[in-house]
Amino acid sequence: MAPVAQEWERSGRYPDEIVDEMKAMGLFGMLVPRQYGGIELDAVSYSIVFEELAKVWMGLSGVLGTHSMATRILAMDGTDEQRSRWLPGMATGEIRSGLALTEPGAGSDLQGITTIARRDGGVYVVNGAKTWITNARHAVVLPVLVKTDPAAKPPHRGMSLLMIETATAGFDIGKDLPKLGYRGPESCEISITDCRVPVENLVGGKEGSGLKQALSALEFGRCNIAGRAVGVAQAALDLALAYAQQRHAFGRPIAEFQAIQTKLADMAMQVQAARLLTWWAASKLDRGERADMETGMAKVFASEVALQASLESMRVHGGYGYSAEYEVERLYRDAPLMAIGEGTNEILKTVIARHLARRS
Ligand SMILES: Cc1cc2nc3c(=O)[nH]c(=O)nc-3n(C[C@H](O)[C@H](O)[C@H](O)COP(=O)(O)OP(=O)(O)OC[C@H]3O[C@@H](n4cnc5c(N)ncnc54)[C@H](O)[C@@H]3O)c2cc1C
User: Fold this and answer.
1) Which residues of 239-273 are buried (b: 16+ CB within 10 A; e: fewer)?
2) What is the mean pLDDT of residues 302-316?
């Protein structure tokens, strides 16, 4: 990826050739059980894959992020028929996917969504809209969060996930949203009008579990976001160190100035702390335990480290750090997404605090 990342990201070129390589490596099947052709990675290895990808091009890791969460949803909560139907193709990447939760009027407050699925015999008739859906244009099928009982109280009891084939009439992928960074994969608006979806596509075959299914996949998702953040932060450190050793001022390399050394040392400690926190949270998932709090901590901490490290690396680069021709500028544009996606850091801190209170 390294030789093309800078140029392709800048031009907005879709990385088809790299996606083909990722298919050949089995990366689309990271969370697919072996019996369906996947490689069934543990959560620690999964987060390391995202770290390694993001070290070179964070945007590209988005091609695998929500796809892998869709596979996780089917593996954990799908019916046998749903698993056999979709997982083998998703494991090879022939069937691409993503995850459609967010709406124009509701992101953090998912219980406030207004996409409705009304049962009509053997189908659900779905109406609503989604936004920011990454990989939507390349997806063959998407898990879509809907309300099957809009009057339910609390609202999550009336929420379900429907696997909607993107070619279904009335399911229209709109424009690619222009973004600060995270270029490579597309993030799109979707409008859904009288879209008829077979009842067999209801994840798990039972209404009312959709929010729970989505949130438990987000636990894994947070390991991938934390991994990406560690990758971006490590890249920022690597670039800063290399630049500081070769840039001279006042007759010596700037790496010899204490002000620069302090920045490098702080970055190195923060990056390693973020990495270890990520592995610690992921290992809890690998022991089969719930890890909302731990994955939340890893995601929040690592994303704040990525933000800080990309800014500090830019400062080490001086004026060149502000140049669009230097790689550090891309890290600076990519870093903020990790503080927003898979639960904003503000929301996750409330989750962490709730868990702390429960355990005290
Ligand atoms: C590039 C990109 C790709 C994305 N890809 C996907 C995707 O593939 N699928 C998908 O479903 N979504 C996707 N999203 C959407 C993303 O998950 C949401 O943007 C995110 O969850 C926040 O929701 P929101 O934008 O509606 O912000 P809001 O929920 O409106 O929040 C606005 C601000 O208010 C704060 N806030 C809200 N409620 C509280 C509270 N209770 N306590 C404290 N603070 C609060 C938030 O932290 C934030 O700072 C993507 C977003 C981006 C930018």
Assistant:
1) bbbebbeeeeeeeeebbeeeebeebbeebbebbee
2) 98
Which residue's CA lies nearest to atom 52 of ligand 1?
A: 132
Tens digit of each residue's pLDDT (9 = 90 or more) over 160-170: 999 999 999 99
Q: Which of 67, 135, 213, 347 has most ligand 1 atoms within 8 Å of its beta carbon, as the pocket-test mutant? A: 347
Tokens, residue 177: 């949203």
Q: Amino acid identity, residue 113?
A: I
Distance from the CA of 158 to the center of ligand 1, in angstroms? 22
Q: How far is the CA of 337 from the centre of ligand 1 (A)?
A: 10
Task: Please give the full DSSP string across 9-59, using - where no structure is assigned.
Answer: HHHT---HHHHHHHHHTTGGGTTS-GGGT-----HHHHHHHHHHHHHHHHH
Residue 131, ligand 1, Cβ within 6 A: no
Residue bearing tokens 């979707």: 190
pLDDT band at 111 (very low <50, low <70, confident <90, very high): very high
Percent of the chain past pLDDT 70, that is, above it, reads: 100
Provide the annotated active-site residues. 342
Q: Which of 340, 348, 352, 354 to mutate to test ligand 1, by most ligand atoms within 8 A of the CB atom? A: 340
DSSP state of 196: E
Calculate the CA 216 to chain-centre distance.
Answer: 14
2-11 vs 43-77: helix axis angle to the nearest 10? Answer: 60
CA separation for the pair 100, 77 (Å, rounded): 17
Q: Which two tokens stand for residue 179?
A: 């973004």
Continuous H helices in the chain: 2-11, 16-24, 43-77, 80-92, 210-246, 258-286, 292-316, 327-334, 337-340, 345-359
Residue indicated by tokens 């995601």? 299
Our answer on whether the CB atom of 270 is closer than 6 Å to any ligand 1 atom is no
Task: Tell the residue nearest (CA) to atom 3 of ligand 1.
Answer: 132
**Residue located nearest, by CA, to atom 40 of ligand 1:** 347
pTM above 0.90, yes or no: yes
Token representation of residue 107: 């992101």
> Is the confidence at residue 360, as pLDDT, over 90?
no
pLDDT at 359: 85
Q: How far apart are CA 165 and CA 58, in angstroms?
A: 27
